Amino acid sequence: MTEHDDWMRHSGASALRHFAPGVASTLDELVAIAPAPLVTAARRVGAQTLSLPALPTPESAADTLTGAPLEFAEQFCVDVSMIDDSQRAALASALGPDTGRFVQVLYVADWVPRARAGLDALFTAPQPAWSAPAEWDTTGEPWPLIQRTLVEVARVRELDPVTTEVVRLYQARQHNCRLCKSLRNRTAMLAGGGEDLYDEIDDFRASSLSARHKAALEFTDALVWQPGRLDPEVVADVRTHFSPAEAVELVIDMMRNACNKIAVSTGTDGANVADGIEVYDVNPDGSVDFGLALPR
């Protein structure tokens, strides 16, 4: 079986299950969490804003976003960096104690469809498709399962660390996450990642970055800004420069990185350092260590 065969024999859903089964399992559980009627509305708004199919919702659930929650949800999906304190205050006034849970639900409604769209573009078999939950969890909380999903993504180790860090930093800058912009991965540093390379990320199309990094960033840019209109040439470049397993990790890494939208949208994304950078690393079990020493 060749890599070309893998692109053709897998659908997006089966590729995720094949190359990242732990992530596929936790995402199934996450999609099945519907803790409040607002889930339906959030998923509908996310789909309409992104021009993507909506995540499934319980048949009995029905709600509509209006006013501050609608404005917040649309801005969250379109450009989270533009959410300001007045929008945060208006959302908190409208939703009260449900505010935090609503923002977590928004992240799921926003980025799981993007990840599915990216995988469906890369892997062309029509079946199996994404399935709806057999049972709904109407009492569960999204955050513990979001955390489990992020850990499962971090355990996948197909991509080289420099590419992983290049993509993470690009999303950090697109979302304007102060914490994420301040972080630097120690393993990527040891593998050759440095500020000279990272300085070229923002204007990557005119940069001297490798074709592999440019392909990854072009695909990342598309999923961040125009997930409903993925250019076939951009998708083809990913297939050229990455293996199927690497491409799956590329997509789910983007989803993990985009969790910073929760912090950015709520204004809780402050960096741990006043100046300079903070060194971190991801352990094989998916846990993260912060405040590490610079590699010698």
Automatic annotation (TrEMBL):
It comes from the Bacteria. SUPFAM superfamilies: AhpD-like. Gene3D superfamilies: AhpD-like. This is Carboxymuconolactone decarboxylase family protein. It comes from Rhodococcus parequi.
